[in-house]
Structures are given as C-alpha cells and as structure tokens.
Design a protein that fits this description.
With about 425 residues, the chain is an alpha+beta fold. It folds into 2 domains: about 300 residues, Bira Bifunctional Protein, Domain 2 (BirA Bifunctional Protein, domain 2), CATH 3.30.930; about 100 residues, Anticodon-binding domain (Rossmann fold). The chain has 12 helices and 21 strands. It is elongated. The two termini are about 25 Å apart.
Length: about 425
Amino acid sequence: MLWSKTLIPTLKEIPQEAESISHQLLLRAGLVRMLMSGVYSYLPLGLKILGNIENIIKEEMSIANAAEVLLPALQPLELWQRTGRDQLIGQVMIRFTDRRQRKICLGPTHEEVITELMKSHISSYKQLPLVLYQIQTKFRDEIRPRFGLIRACEFIMKDAYSFDKDENGLDKNYQAMFEAYLRIFKRCGLNVITIEADSGVMGGNLSHEFMVPAKDGEDMILICPECGFTKAFKEGSEDTCAKCRIKLGKVNAIEIGHIFKLGTKYSLALGANFLDEKGKLKPIIMGCYGIGVSRIISAVIEQSHDEQGIIWPKELAPYKVIITSLDVTDKEIMKLSLGLYKELKDAGIDALLDDRDERAGVKFNDADLLGIPLNVIIGRKSFDQGKVELKTRRDQSTQLLDIKAVRESIIQTLNAKGIGYE
C-alpha cells in the first residue's frame, strides 16, 4: 500500500482524552478515532491489526476443532428473562422496543442465543461433543468507558461454546480451549498470567482468567515474587503466599480472556436437552470461552512500546515492512522504492511505501510511531554507494545492505527470531 492512497492520520501531540499509554498510541498512530465516549472507528491500520488477530484466533480454533458461526446482535429480551440474567446484568444492557412492540436488546454476550439455537438442533448424544465459536461485536452500556479499547461500549469479542454429554467431555473441551488460548496469546506477543477466577453472572463451577500485566490495567492480581503463585486481588483477601510465607506483590493487569465451565445453567433454563445412550432425557453440559479481540490491540501496545511509539510483533503488524523514500522528487530513489515495493508484494510480504513529500525527520518519527517491524530507508547518500539502510524497529539496530540483496535480506530477517513473538 502507498501511504498517499490510504488513511494514516498520525498525531505529534498526545490527545487530551487519552488516559493510558495504549490509548495515546492508538490515537497518535492513527489506528482508531473516537465517535463518542466508548465507541470507536477502526481506521485502515487498526483494521489490519484487528484482522491479523482474528486470523490467529481462527487458525487456533480450527486446531481445537471449533466451527465458526455468526449469531445475531439483536436479541429478544424474553430469552434473558428466562435465565434471569436480564436482572443480573440489566444495567449494562442496551435495550429498546421495536415498532412491533418487541422488547429487544443489543447482545452484550450470546450464551442464551447459542443455547436456544442448540436446543432446536441437538437431540441425541451422538451429536455431541460440539464446539462453536464466533467473532462478533458486543454492546454494553458501560458506566464509565475509559482507556480507549480496554473498556468500550461497543467492542469485538471471540466467544466459543462447547456442548457435551457429560462432565468428562466438558473437562476435555475446557482443557483444549485453555491450551488454545495460551497459543493465541503467545502468537500475539503477549505475556499472560492465568488465574482461577469467580464465575460471576456467567455461572458455572470453575473459570480461569487470562491477564496481561500492564501499568494502566483496571484489574489487580497478586503474585508471589518467589514461586510465581498468582490469584485475583479482592478486598480483604490474604496477601501472603501459602507456600513461601512471603508477601504477595500487587500488579495491575488487563483481562483479555475468560473461560467458564457453565455446566447446565443455560440448558436447564432454556430446555436444551438430549437423549443419552439409555434413551434418558438430560440437559446438555456447556462451557463458554471468551477473548476480548479488540482489547488485545491495547494490551499488546501496553506491553510492547517505547518512547518513540508502538513495537508490533510480526504476526500482528499492519505491515511487515515500511519503505521510507527520503526524497520522492528524486526519480532514481522512487524507481528503486517502487521496484522494491513490487518485489516484496510479489514475494507475499505486506509492505507500506511512504511516498509522502515530507521531511526525513517526519518520516522517521512516523515509522517508529507505527511500530512496523522493518524499515527500509532509501536516501541519496546510501543510494550512491549502491546501498539501502535496513532498520529493525524492536531494537533500533541498523545495517547497510547491497541494493541487489535487499529482498532476500528482508525475507531472512523476517524469518529470524527477535522481531516476532519468540
């Protein structure tokens, strides 16, 4: 993509409304723009990053034998009344009455909807186990939207649901999802801590949270500095490690995933049953597995940035390479820049060519701000030597490369460790 043909509205100054470092960099790098409090538009770079996260999730869900669906955002309130959750989370539900006088809400989550769907599909144990997932926009009337994508009123979530005939099947699916989540977060370049958590309004007898330590995280977790034991922080909770007998440290964190053993909470309430091997009618045993897809963007920025801007792991980066042409009025430099751009494109490497007529300093600062893993800098001085400069964003290291060897050097560098999640 040519910079001049897309929308990348970078900012020099920190916007006043930006509270956290991730919120600041989301806005400064031109990834998103706020429409109103808690509601954001994704601009081209932000959407590409979001798509990269979704692709990772889809690949890992496929490995875990989960099939993708897409459920409605509009939901009849009557479903929620049957489970009683219209009262439990009523304050955050965005609800209205349509012209047919139907009471409707915008889905804050989809347990009721997926259970109703399975009620009409599953009738026998022979159809189990089954795991379905979706990537869908959720809507919640947050009391205090803040930190950009970390706490928003409209956000993108991956929610999966398992359906089993017995607890043993649920245990297997729960473990499979637990392991899939660890792979997903590793590929996203995140340092994640898992803790056993309260199931809350979701219900069930067991749940785990996946937490990303971050200075501006809204959640608090306790960690033993000696053995690494972790648990959720609660007012009045014991703050000493039972094993090491030392004080637990408090760490701010962002919750990016939560998995639950729901059991029969929803199947009993909504009448989702199946006939077992003996012909006996039983409620389907369920699990639920959520990931804050859009929240991952902020979590990665919180953990991977420096004073210059974002540092994207290569699997999430909007482009793998940025080509910085220092003088777009120089025909030889532009010919080389466009030629390299085409070579990379032909090799399947997503590249951004900065073809703006801007000062070198502006281009360097913007390249660092965007956090693209590799920057190929093409200027007259190096060009006259038959060279170009290759800069690695993560460690700011640079090297001069022979013009004829640039393409292969880029491929080799992208395949090497140190700029990705390894």
